[in-house]
Structures are given as C-alpha cells and as structure tokens.
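Section 3.1: Structural characterization of target chains.
Under the original work plan, the team committed to producing a structural model for every single-chain target entering the pipeline before any wet-lab resources were allocated. The record below documents one such target. The sequence was received from the expression subgroup and is listed exactly as submitted; it comprises 233 residues.
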Amino acid sequence: PRLRRAASERAAYVGPWLPEPLPADVLPPDHTLERNADLSYSFVALLERLGPEERAAFLLRELFDVPYADLAALLGKSEPMCRQMVHRAHERVRHGRPRRVVPPEVQHRFLDRFLAALHRDDPDALLSLFAETVTFTSDGGNKVHAARKVLEGPARIARFLLTVHRKFGAAYRSTVEPINGHPAVVSYWLDGSVHGVTAVTLDGDRITAIYRILNPDKLRNLPPRPTLAHTAS
C-alpha cells in the first residue's frame, strides 16, 4: 500500500518530481565521498526514474542483500518477477550513470565556471560546459515558477538559464556547497532564506544533466545563510 500511495502521489505531482536535497549535516558522521558516492544527488535523482516497486527491489537487494524469496514476500511478487525488476533497474542505472567519475574538486570548479558564466551573461562560456545531450529538470511543485517539462539541448538550456538569471538573478545570491555529500549550487534570497538548489551530473569534462529544486517544501532542511548577501554575488 505504501508503494502504491507513493506512486499515486507522484502521478498527481505538477511538473517534474525531484528528490529532496540533503545538507551536509544530515549525512552519517563517517561519511566520505569515496565510500558513499551513491549518495550523490544525480544518483538519487536517477533512482527516482525507477518505478516505486522497481526502486525498492533494487535498493533492498543492492544495499541489504535481501534474498529474492524475501523480496517476493515483501513486494507481493513472484521470485522471477523480482529478479527481473532488479535486473531491469540495474540496466537503467548502469546506462544512466556517468562513464567517467569526476572528483569533487573538479565538480566544484565546474560549478564555479557555471556561476561565472551566468553572472557574466556569457552564453558561449555556458555552452562550453554542456554536453550535446544535456538535460535540465526543474521541480517547483506548482508552488513556485519552474519549467513544467524537462528541457533538452545546450542552446535551449543556456537560453533558458540566462533569461531566468537576467530577470531574477539580482534577487538572490549563490554559492557552491556540499549537497548529498557532493558540490552543488545553493541559492539564497537576500534575507538569507534558501531560494533553490542546482545540482549537476558531470561525465568527464561536460555537464550531462542539471537538476534545479525550487519547491520550498523540499528545501526546509537547508539552513538559512543571513550573512551570504554580504559575502557572495
């Protein structure tokens, strides 16, 4: 029932649905980027593309090595069906993950360049960061203005990002901070409250996916930064 309820809520959600970003202080004390790479926002977002039962089967099997007989009992499915779900999830996750893992310090530099291109209103600099297959997903939850569909293609995404920044960029300040243990852009209103989070997937030297979380319900765990207006631009 819980999985079906989650699926029903997701189906009724307005616009793209993205998972809630996690600030650094909610991660385990022994968290390291090497040991917990799969906490990255891009991987969590990738998991959310799976169906609820498929995702549950994959995580229970991968993280806890739950036997297929127990999976079948938990999900109300046959063992062969559970094996098929896990295999299908494996394939989708494998194809969706970057081929070349990028160290956190390189991710941080990319995001610095991303912000600099927006601040300079420089489309060429922005386009130089994007893969040809780049996508942009924005989650406003019908509570704030956000793109209702996933955008595709470097030129379209660069044009959209620059247009938004021209209109609203003066109203908030952005900085690169750890989200889900990996660098991401966190934007704050001038009073220090959180405006949104922008996370990216990097494959080698190009951004292949951009995720922007603007739904205020999903930003409640992120602490305000009242002093940021005086220290960032």
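The chain is about 40% helix and 20% strand.
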